[in-house]
Amino acid sequence: MTAYLVLRDHPLRAVEDGPTITLTDDDVADTERRRGRRESVVPVAAGEQLTERQALLALLLPSANNIAAVLARWDAGSTERFVARMNAAARSLHLSHTRYTDPSGYDDATVSSAADQVRLVARAMRLPGFASIVARSSATLPVAGTVHNTNVLLGHDGFVGVKTGSTTAAGGCFAFRAVRWIDGKRTTITGVVLGQPGRDQIAAGLVAAVAMVDRIAGHRPMPARRPEVRGRQAMLPAPAP
User: Fold this and answer.
1) pLDDT, tens digit, 9 for 90 and up, residues 25-44
2) Minimal CA–CA distance to 102: which of 182, 165, 17?
3) Strands 145-148 and 138-141
4) How many CB atoms lie within 10 A of CB 50?
5) Distance (Å, rounded) from C-alpha 41 to C-alpha 121?
6) Is the peptide bond before 162 cis (omega within 30 degrees of 0)?
7) Do 114 and 171 meet the contact criterion of CB atoms below 8 Å apart?
8) Checking phi first, is residue 198 left (phi over 0); if not, alpha (psi -120 to 50) or beta?
9) Over the stretch 187-241, which tens digit does the pLDDT of each residue have?
C-alpha cells in the first residue's frame, strides 16, 4: 500500500527516476531505532539523496522499513497523515478486512486478509513504475550498495513479482504474480499466502506460493525445479542439462 500510494501521488514511468529525497539526521536515528528492534532496514546517511525510484527499490526489494517511513513523511508530511491516507485508500478499494497503523506493516496492529491483498496487488501492478520495480532482482543504492530482492522466485516458473514479508505475528507472507500457459492460453495468476510457519518464514511463503501456482496451472513441478529451503532462502536448483 505504501508503494501504491507514493506512485499514485508521484507517478513514474517504467524508466523514470522521479524526484530526489534528501535523508536527514532524524532518518538515521529512526533507522538505528528500527535496527535495534531487529526490523528489516537498509543503511542510510544524513545528506544521502535517493531518487523516488531508489527509495521504492529499497522498500520493495529488501523490505526496508526505515524507507517506508521516509516515503511516508515525504509524501504526506508525517507518518500519521500518511497512515490516514492508507486507510482511506483501503476503504476506496473495498479492503474491508484491512487496517493500517504504520507504513511498513511491522506494527502488529496493522492487519489485512489474503483476499484484500490480492485486490491491492492487482491494482498496484497496473502502475508501470510498480511492476518494473518488483521485477528487479537487485538494485544499487548510494549508501547501502547492492541490495537484493527477497523474492528469489523471480525469473523462475513464470514468477514476475511481487513482495515477501514476515513478522512473528504475521508469519511468512508472499503476494505474488506468475504467468503460465494453461490449456494453450497465457494466464496471469495473482495470489497471496499469509501466516506460513517455520524457522524461515519467507522461504515458507515462497514454497507455498509455488505449490499454489502449480495447483492452479494443473501440474506439479519437475523435482529439479521444486524449491528447497536452504539457510535463509528458498533455492531453485537449475534443471539438469
Assistant:
1) 999 999 999 999 999 999 99
2) 165
3) antiparallel
4) 27
5) 23
6) yes
7) no
8) left
9) 999 999 999 999 999 999 999 999 999 999 986 544 434 454 443 344 333 333 2
